[in-house]
Amino acid sequence: MNTETPKISIAAKCEACTYWQSKADNTGECRRHAPQTIAFTVDDNVKFESHFPLTTAQDWCGDFAARA
């Protein structure tokens, strides 16, 4: 088993990824996969909302793809 910490290039951050859409001051949405749906209760009614994951420009993941 490999126990080394992955080495992430400075260029491989969300802000340089083709799947990332900037929203405001250093935050944005990851559009790599479908939005995540959450369910919650309001006044005894179940409500649903879908959101893309929010990340900061400096976050990273294993699905990085450089912008063209």
Q: Can you put this structure into words, describing what you see?
A:
With 68 residues, the chain is mostly beta strands. The protein has a domain at 14-56. Helix content is 0%, strand content 38%. The chain has strands at residues 20-24, 27-30, 36-42, 45-51, 54-56. It has a 3-stranded antiparallel sheet, with no helix packed on it. The chain starts with 19 loop residues before the first strand and ends in a 12-residue tail after the last strand. The mean pLDDT is 90.
Reconstruct the topology from this structure.
Blueprint (H helix, E strand, L loop, with lengths): L19 E5 L2 E4 L5 E7 L2 E7 L2 E3 L12
Antiparallel strand pairs: 1-2, 2-5, 3-4
Short description, anyone?
The chain is mainly beta. The protein is built from no helices and 5 strands.
